[in-house]
Structure formats: C-alpha cells, structure tokens
Amino acid sequence: MVTAQSDFPRWYQDVLATAELADNGPVRGTMVILPYGYAIWEHIQADVDRRIKAAGAENAYFPLFIPEHYLAREAAHVEGFSPELAVVTHGGGKQLEEPIVVRPTSETVVGEYMAKWVQSYRDLPLLLNQWANVVRWELRPRLFLRTSEFLWQEGHTAHRTRADAAAYARRIHLEVYRDFLVDRLALPVLVGHKTERERFAGAVNTMTCEAMMGDGKALQLATSHELGQNFARAFGIDFLDSSGRRELAWTTSWGSSTRMVGGLIMGHGDDAGLVLPPAVAPAQVVVLPVRADASLLHVAEQVAEPLRGAGVRVRVDAREGRSFGRRVTEWEIKGAPLRVELGPRDLAAGQVTLVRRDTGEKSAVARAGLAAAVPGLLTTVQAAMLAAATRRRDDRTHDVASVAEAAEAARTGFARLPWAAVGAAGEDRLAQYAVTVRCLQREDGSLPESPDEPDLVAVVARSY
User: Fold this and answer.
1) For residue 76, pLDDT beyond 80
2) Which of 123, 182, 185, 273 is the most exposed, having the fewest neighbouring CB atoms within 10 Å of its CB?
3) Domain assignments of the chain as residue spans, ordered by start
4) Using CA atoms, how far apart are residues 241 and 238, in angstroms rounded to an integer?
5) What average pLDDT does this structure show over 234-254?
6) 142: which strand partners?
7) pLDDT tens digits, residue range 394-426?
8) Which 8-state DSSP code applies to residue 148?
C-alpha cells in the first residue's frame, strides 16, 4: 500500500480494497459495498436516523421512478440536475409514452404528494424523511465519494411560514448533521452557508458541513436547503390558514449519504489503513490470541464475554491459517480502535496487552479489570481522534487577505478571508485554480442566521 503522503488518491483506493470496504460495480460508476463497509454505514444510519426522529421527522418511502414532467415543473431543479439524470425510455419491451427519470433526489415527487396531504394549517408542519438510493450519472466516479448510485437519507418538510422552515432546516443542520459528524465521526466540520452559485438547484439558501481530508482538500458531508416557496408554487402545496385564506407552504430538504464513509477514511486514515472512531466501528475491540490452540481460545472468549456485557462490540479473531502477525496487520488496516492481544505469558501473568489503533500505544492490563477499563478508554480514543483531526485542520488553515493568497493557500489546505474581498468576481478567479468557496461563516466559525449577514468570512479550498 502506498503512503498517503506520496499518492493520496492511490492510497485511498488501496485502503478501500485492503480493508474490504467496497468494490466497483458491474456498471460504470456503481459500487458494491462489502459487509465491513456496510456495517460502518449501518452504525452511521442508525445514529443519524435516531437524531432525525428526535427532531420530529417520520420516515416514509417514495418511488424510485419519477415522471419526467414532474421535474419539468420546477425549471431550476431540472437545470441543476439535467446533466446527471438517468432516464428510462423503454419498459416491458415497448417505448414508454413518457420517459421516466430515475430519482436524483425526491423534491419533485414528494412535492406532488405533499400537495395532496396538506389542506389546512393544522396539517403543518409536515416532516418527512426517507432512506433510499439515488442515481446521478457522475462523469468522474470515485467509490463512496461520487458514484452513479449511492445510499442516503433525504428529508423533506413543509411549513406555515418562512421563519418556521428556516428554523427547522437550521435545527437539522446543527443538531443532526454537525453534532453527529463531530461527536460520532470525530470530524471537526465547518458549518456555513453556500454562496449563491454553489446552492442546491431551486433553493433560496443552502447550509453545509465541510471537513478537511488528509490531503488538505474539503469534502462536503451534509447539506440543508431552504427551498422558499419554489417547489410549493410548482406543485401546488398550499393550505387554508386560520383565517380561511389560502397560502403557499414553505419547504425544506436536507440530506447525507454514504459519502460519510469516504470522509471517515480520508479524514482519519494513516499509512497503515483505516482509523475508526469507536462510535461507528463494527468491532470496537478485537481479541487476538497469538495461537489458535484450545487453551488460548477459551481464555479469549472469557475475556470477550464481560466486554460484551459492558455494551462493547467485540470480535474474537482466532482464524486458522492466518498467523498472529497477519491478523494484527489486517485489523490495523480495518481500523479497529482497540486490540486485546493474548499470549501464554499474558495468560500466566493474569493480564492482557491492550493496543490503541489511533496512537499505537500498548499497555498491560489485568484481565480482571479489563471490562471496567475498556469503555472509558474507548471514550478517550474518541475524544483524542477529534482533537487530533482538529489540530490537523487548524494547522492547515490560513487567514489571508486576498483572492490570490487564498488560491495559493488552497494548494495545501483551507484559506479564510473576508467574503467582501471575494464576491462573485473572486469566485470566478478562484475557479481558474479549481478552488471554490466552501462556506460563508461568522468570524468565530459559527453558522450565520443568513448568508446576507455583514462581515462574513469565506472559507475556500480545493474539494472532492
């Protein structure tokens, strides 16, 4: 495996393969997610789903196929997605009377049904979420980052007022996305507003979570959109208010995807492979007997059982035909947060060797105290990974005064400068260097109430 410093794109592909996360699918741009990669996604999905439900949204499901005229009713939406659309023209051996679009996102089909379901102000807010796959015909696919088909959740809501819609989109962005990414993935994301040219097609405002990857580039990990009344107008999502007047609803949409798995790999990985935060690791602790003989296997299970009782996800690896050294290397590549190594001398001394994946630190721990020590150590590892990622990001973020300085700084990391010094003309100049404004935020890094607030700071970078 090449080093991350020498060839980051190749390193990323090597990690995907050696950690058994994903493989290319049979159709260009598609991917097969292997069990270990899917297990990581399941932990992400479960946590994000819990947070979405705590914010009041309910899960539903909408069709994969969307009539073409649905998208045509929202012109800005079609303009934004038309190069990426996959369109079905034949079915059952016959040409269809109307082409069918394979969903790139579901604002249009959800809008059609919201119009049916919303009649009165009493029906609002309507807060929906779905877990699904979507298809966008990517020109330059890369596993987990940009694929022609990927898995995600997409939320869609309708509200009585613009203020209610804006407040809910902001709540999702901070309480669901930012808090999850920071607290569970240990990725210190920047939150801010997209510039007008970077907004989601058809939106009046887009909020984003941006993380720095190991090569200094940015990766957008979640977005939340205020759609104004654009989709409500196109699909007739209106309601009778408390005085009997008919009003248009205000809608939002928001989403996150399997791109988060790619962010985990590139945000924490090192030359040995994955480094997983304990919160989403399929196996938080791997117990490795040095040999697969009966006595050590028995002890390994005795070590694992109280850990499972303490709520820790444990795997005992005593596979025959694989040496101890090879098993250690495989779990380093897979990024298991803690290893418990067991040998005859450990057995005789009544202890185990505990190894942290993030630092490589080894310590001898009494078997009797292991179950009490591990949960706290996992919490320590989680916090240490966030702290380390924050230091890496901050060390590669530079305050500059001009667009030219920002373009230079973006060769190796992020640049921050006053948005007033950039503007639309500056965005054009940055684009010549494949650099974009990733978000607009306040000087202290907090999320502004509006992208039109004065004195905002632009964060610029190269991106995936």
Assistant:
1) no
2) 123
3) 8-268, 285-377, 397-461
4) 9
5) 97
6) 146
7) 999 999 999 999 999 999 999 999 999 999 999
8) S
Tokens of 375: 């949960």
Residue 48's nearest CA partner among 181, 146, 161, 226 is: 181
Q: How confident is the model at residue 139 (pLDDT cuts 50, 70, 90)?
A: confident
Distance set, CA 143 to CA 146, 224, 261, 274, 278 (Å): 6, 23, 10, 15, 23
Apex 215 CA angle, 210 and 219, nearest 5: 20
Q: Tokens 């005789």 sit at which residue?
A: 348
Which helix (H) or strand (E) is 410 found in, with range? none
Element (DSSP H or E) covering residue 307 = helix 294-309
Number of other residues whose CB lies within 10 A of the CB of residue 106 = 24
CATH of domain 285-377: 3.40.50.800
Q: How far apart are the first and last CA of the chain?
A: 22
8-268 has which CATH code? 3.30.930.10
Please report the DSSP string for 329-386 in residue order. Answer: HHHHHHT-SEEEEE-HHHHHHTEEEEEETTT--EEEEEGGGHHHHHHHHHHHHHHHHH
> What was the pLDDT predicted at 202?
87
Q: What is the mean pLDDT of the chain?
A: 96
Kindly list the strands in the beta sheet with 86-91, ordered across the sheet, starting from the edge strand earlier in the chain. Answer: 65-67, 94-102, 86-91
CA separation, residue 184 to residues 238, 244, 360 (Å): 39, 46, 21
Could you give the count of Cα atoms lying within 13 Å of 339 in the half-sphere of its Cβ? 30
Residues 6+ apart with CB under 8 A from 164: 125, 250
Going from the C-alpha of 90 to that of each of 82, 87, 93, 94, 95, the distances in angstroms are 19, 9, 6, 5, 4
pLDDT given at position 195: 97
DSSP readout, 140-154? S-BTTTB-SEEEEEE
Cβ(19)–Cβ(335) below 8 Å: yes
Measured N-to-C along each axis, helices 259-268 and 8-18 cross at an angle, to the nearest 10 degrees, of 110
Q: What is the CATH number of domain 397-461?
A: 3.30.110
